[in-house]
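We modelled the chain as a single entity of 103 amino acids. Its sequence is:
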Amino acid sequence: FVVRQCREIYKRLYALCVIQEMADHRDCDRSDANILHFYLKSLEFAALYTKLFQDLVNPSASTRKVFGGPYHSVVSHMATMYRYVSLKTVAVEAEESQFHDVR
């Protein structure tokens, strides 16, 4: 039982690590195979994450706390954005927009 749980945790972390590694790719490293791999790892992460929290989510509580913005961004948009633009560029733009009001 414990070994199976450890394997499941490892799968979740590994999928997330692969997604993060691919998000840090340079433009020249993107290929059709990498784009497909990104989609598959995003789908795998979504399935494993949902399986982990399906019993923990209280139906009366907001599921947005567990399946909120960051989860939605990774699962729904990140692979598509990777297909067209460098995700490093997107991260920089997001950081700049946060500090725009400070100036």
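As a brief sanity check on the tokenised model: Residues 2-23 form the longest helix (22 residues). DSSP finds four helices and no strands in the chain.
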